[in-house]
Design goal:
The chain contains seven helices and five strands; from the N terminus they run βββααββααααα. With about 210 residues, it is α+β, with helices and mostly antiparallel strands. The protein folds into two domains: about 100 residues; about 80 residues. The chain starts with a strand and ends with a helix.
Length: about 210
Amino acid sequence: MNMEIIRVYSKDDLKQKIRVKLIKNEPWFCIQDIGRILKLTNVHRTIRNLPKKGITRSSTLTGGGIQEVLYCDEPNLYRLIFKSRVTGAKAFQDWVFEDVLPEIRKTKKIREKSKSTRKLITDAWQGQGVKTPKEYAYLTLEEYKMLGYGKIRKDNMTEKQIRELLALEAIELVKLSYKENAGYSGCKETIKESAKTVKEIREKAKEEIE
């Protein structure tokens, strides 16, 4: 699963978006974004000299819909930085090394925790009488729907969305521990109740920020 992480690089009052994806649990950086920041005039020509194993395409949501976008691995990112002639290339490298990569390592831990929590929640559903693969799939979609995510794949969720999903399933587990034989409908109702709590926390956090 390839989760997209978006970071914003700020320099001279200019903020630019950097798309990073976890591919096989390793960070890959959007070449288009890197080229724009490093002012690489011909990115496609530049990457011809990079090791091909460190270049890949990944489906990415853009302004024009889902497109196959080029990404490079960490070693190739540093090769691109080395090729840049802009004065801010070193500052950008320091930002990646000191801010972005530590945050991505934290995100990887969140993903690993999400996998273990997922196993706990499916076991809980099973213990309440959920039986068929279709019911498991529908309950999963119900979680996403109740959090306002719509029909999204988990690998396309942001870090914040995964954190909220973890919170939702933690609350679900507590509520289900006090129920017996709730069945599919009972589990679905528990999702709605738990999502309401998560959304209340979300709104309160927004108010505190504002």
